[in-house]
Amino acid sequence: MYIYLLFVHILAAVIAMAAVICYPLIMSSAKTTSQAKFALALLEKAAILPKLGGTLLLLTGLALGFLEVSLFKELWYVLSIAIFLVILVIFAGLIPAGIKQQRTLLQQTPGDDLPDAYRQSRRRSARLDLIANLAAFIVILLMVFKP
Which UniProt keywords apply (predicted)? Predict the structure, then answer.
């Protein structure tokens, strides 16, 4: 059972992380209002991947811990879960709120030039993306090297 759960856990990580890594790449390519609108619509559709993958990742990680109870005494395991919860908050709550705000700003913008308010909101989202990606990198390091 453990090996099958581990397989699902790794698959969920790939699903969640692929979307997380792509967020800043997609958004940094938007240079006009119409491109930004398209990029935000794409992100809204892709938002299911980190939510689904992240939830499955958390559940399988906890299930692995319950199968191997000694994991709950390991610092790397507990830290991984704690850091991962931060990542989930960012990608399930903060990033979608930023996307809604940016979309509203773009709908109110005549022309194709990106407004300054949008750029500021996008910078906040980019910082959150960076924090989440660094946190994900740390979680991966913890899981691989188990210090």
Answer: Membrane, Transmembrane, Transmembrane helix
* SS3 at position 32: coil
pLDDT band at 147 (very low <50, low <70, confident <90, very high): confident
Q: Which helix (H) or strand (E) holds 108?
A: none
Entry pTM: 0.82
114 DSSP assignment: P
Distances (CA, A) of 109 to 102, 123, 126: 11, 18, 21
Residue where the block lists tokens 């691989």: 144
Whether the CB-CB separation of 67 and 40 falls below 8 Å is answered with no
Contacts of 67 (CB under 8 A, 6+ apart): 1, 2, 5
Residue 25, SS3 per DSSP: helix
Burial class (CB in 10 A: 0-12, 13-18, 19+), 22: middle
Tokens describing residue 35: 């491109």
Question: What's the rounded Cα separation, in Å, for the pair 128 and 130?
Answer: 5
- In sequence order, the 6+-apart residues with CB closer than 8 A to the CB of 13 are 53, 57, 140
